Amino acid sequence: MKNRNVLALFCATLFTTVALVSCNKESIDEDNAPIPYAPIGGYASSDEISPSNLLVKCSFEDNITDSKNGISGGNGTDVTYQTGVKGKAYQGSSSAFIAYDNVSNDVKNLTSITVSGWIKTNPHTGGAQCLFMLPKTTDFWGNIFTLIEGTGPNTTMLVKNHIQKDVTPSIPWSGQWIVHDGSNVLNNMFGVWKHMVWSYNATTSTYSMYIDGQKLTLPESMSKRYTNDPASGGVPYGNLASSDVSKFVIGGYQQHLGSPWSAPDGWMLHYTGLLDEFRIYNTALADNDVRALYLLEKDNR
């Protein structure tokens, strides 16, 4: 009997000890649980920003895949990867580019647009480097693209954005150049990661540029896209109007893709810098959303 009592007491003590250890472990686990990130602009991650409008997203995690499938069938030439803002990044060179054979109708039929991406590059000479291009088989200049010119002081970047517009038949050529030069040149852009975003709003016919989440103050002649001075009866251009779209290229010009385009001119240079988190939306993102996108991606979210 005595041995039974001792055994019962031992079992009860063991059960109590196990229960206490278990409770203490749960308490420790709760105390050390990951602390949720505070939302930025109302979002927990960058992918929560206007997800239904996001058509293209290339993160370059050792591959050239567009996770949204707006562009697909990609073939890379001399593509390598380096450390980016989020994971890996596309590393350009004097011969590197990506050609995507398939372009979705959503990308072909863009009426408004936001293009965003992180770039890190250095000054260059000899021409203009192309960051990306939506080609056009019947036009030398293509539909939509961003160029980085190799001119100006080493601390400044001259950027040209090109868009095709829906205009009246009286305008023989609808391509529109939006050039950041002169007093609108981009300052302190080289040698460090910069988040560059530009957008076009078809409803208001306005163009905007953002650097590191901050909207640049632009003259009305640059931000409002009209056939002539709005004060003199200028007609807003309205919707984008890409046409004869074939393929999509990152890091080069349509002329680097071969037929039906002619050989590239000598000044047509490949992009030699880094590119990360390249996105295209079919809307002009609100200022607050651009700011949130910058902060969230910077925070690796």
UniProtKB/TrEMBL annotation:
GO molecular function: hydrolase activity, hydrolyzing O-glycosyl compounds
Record key words, sorted: Signal
GO biological process: carbohydrate metabolic process
Signal sequence, renumbered to the chain: 1-21
Protein name, as recorded: LamG domain-containing protein
SUPFAM superfamilies per UniProt: Concanavalin A-like lectins/glucanases
